[in-house]
Structure formats: structure tokens, C-alpha cells
Amino acid sequence: MSRPPSRLRAAVVGTGAIAHGSHLPALADHADAVELVAAVDVDKARLDAFCSAAGAGVEGYDRLDAMLAAARPDLVLLASPPAFHREQSVEALRAGAWVLCEKPLCLSLAEYDAIAAAEGRDGSGGPHVSVIFQHRYGSGAAHARELLTSGALGTPLVAHCQTTWYRDTDYYAVPWRGRWASEGGGPSMGHGIHQIDLLLHLLGEWTEIRAMAGRLVHDVESEDVSTALVRFANGAMATVVNSVVSPQEVSRIRIDCADATVELTHLYGHSNDDWRYTPAPHAAADGPRVETWRTPAAELPSSHSAQLTGVLAAMRAGTRPPGGGPDARRTLEFVAALYKAAFTGLPVRAGEITPGDPYYSAMHGGHPDWAPVDASGGGR
């Protein structure tokens, strides 16, 4: 698909809080490269408010197909509830538009593979899909990944990935939240997936996971707490904790390597100051080396805007964008494996959830203690 020499045309689907708070600022940051021309929402009042905030020239639609036919966008930003992501991604791809989608991209590995089948092949120039995993973008994350993958911090040994947030009953009063068919899971899928993706981005391939999950507070279909033990291909071992019952909210990653510990502590986004490097005693005397760890070359906070930079560059080049393809599938497979390990009580290895496995088509795997009644023939 050829690209116009002028600004790319973008459309936003779903005009709620995330569209206002994250996608509009990101598009404004890239106004020289991309122009917002359309928005879609079934709620007219919400749509009108968004179009007014976006400024002149943004046309509102109540149907995706009508927007795609009339506006012919190059890029569709999906900010709709998760249950619509698969259908809307495929529809946009078939119309020739690239897609940047809020997490989770879809509700299962089966849905992911259906989306991937609608993409252009690598080398064809697209269109492709990218998932919003903004925590892996920004200068602090890029610097940490370079140090870890180059071996500058020594061999990775032990890691901790923590997403301990708080959500009250009013949060779950929104009808699609806490339900497998509309959200795909609990904090493992909808909250902790950001830190999980960053952990995998920093440490690489995972090989084995053991896990537990529970409904400790909220009356929902999915979990409100999960924990996991993970082994990586490089030998490192990690703990992963996801919660929406934690009054003191924090997002944290810690990786202990042979020569240093790298830590990130934040909540919904990070800058360079949120990263900390602590040298091991034998490395502390090498001042210049330690200083390079603590001094990224630039200051760029993690954000939708930072990720959009890479997506637009990929569109111009006709290459797969960051946050898509097998890389994004790996994160979704990790979450599916976490659920399978938690619900079956058995270890799960990377690559074992394939077509025919119940956890391939649904994150609850049809487990009688977790699946909704209409999905399992019994359920809870």
C-alpha cells in the first residue's frame, strides 16, 4: 500500500477517557506527520465532545465501516472496549489501514492469530497492527534494555515484576469489566500486562511458568489477584504479582544481574528518574562504568506519543511496527500460560498452548471453577 507524501490520515475508534487523555495528546505531538480526520463512537454525546476537543476537520461517525469507506484513514487508533478489538482490527486491516490498539489487543491467542492472518506479510509494506505497550518506550526503558541485552550489567539472575493497584466496586460497575467475554481476564490481562510486557522486553524469551490466582475481594468472573514464578531462556528466574486490591499502588520491575541491580518504580508511566542502578560490591569501584549505567543519552518519558513515533516511522518505511507481530503475541501467550498454570495447578511451557488447547480459544480455558456458566456448561 503506497503512502501519501503529505501527512498520514488517522481515525480514533472509541472516544472515552483514554482517547481524550492519551491519544489526542500523542496525535498533537506528531501533528507534522499525522492528521486526525475522523472518530467513531456509538454514544453521540461522547463522540461530539471528542470531536469538539479534537478541533476542526474531525468528522464523527457511529459505525466503523462507514468511517472506513468515507474517511479512508491510513491509521486507526482503537480505544474501544477489548471485546471489539479483534473484529475492529480485522475490519480496519482489510480496508488497508494500519492499527494501533489499546491493550489487550484481543481476548485470546485464537483471536490474535485471526488478526495476524489479516495483516500484510512482512516485506509487503503492511498494513500491520501494533499494541499499546507504552512502558517499553521512552529513554529509560531503551537504556535499560541496551544494558541488559549487551551484557553490560552482567548475567541476569533474579527478577521481580509487580503491578499492585487498587480498584473499588464502582470500577467494576462498568458492565464489561471483570467478565471474560468482554475484558478477557482480570489484573493479569488488563492491568499487569503492561509490566509483564516490559519484563519480557527486557529479559527476552520465557520458557516456563507456574502460577496461582484468586478472587479475594471482588465478585467478578475473573481473578483480582495472581502470582507467578517464571523461568527465562537465559536462566533468570522471576516472580510476577498482579493485583487490584492493593491500597498502596505501585508498578515495579527489579532485575538483579551479576554486576548490578536495575529497578524501575512508578505507577502509570516512567521517566529517567524512575530508574535506579545499584552496582554489586565488586563493580562499585568502577566509577565511569557505573556512571554510564545511570546516565541515559536522552530524556523521553514513556507514553503513547513515544510509541506512536515508532509506529509512524514503520508506516513510512513499510515495515512491521514495534509492539506487533510475534513480539506482541509472546506477551499474550505469557498471560494465557499464567491462567492455564494457575487454574490447572501445573507448570506451563512456552509454545504448548496451540489450537485444540482450551486455553488457546479462551483465557479461562473452560475451567469449571472459572469459566462463566454459558462457556463451560456448568461453571461457578
Automatic annotation (TrEMBL):
Ranges where the GFO/IDH/MocA-like oxidoreductase domain occurs: 143-262
The protein's name: Gfo/Idh/MocA family oxidoreductase
InterPro entries: Gfo/Idh/MocA-like_OxRdtase_N, Gfo/Idh/MocA_Oxidoreductase, GFO_IDH_MocA-like_dom, NAD(P)-bd_dom_sf
Pfam families linked to this entry: GFO_IDH_MocA, GFO_IDH_MocA_C3
Highest taxon above the source species: Bacteria
The Gfo/Idh/MocA-like oxidoreductase N-terminal domain, residue ranges: 8-120
Organism: Streptomyces peucetius
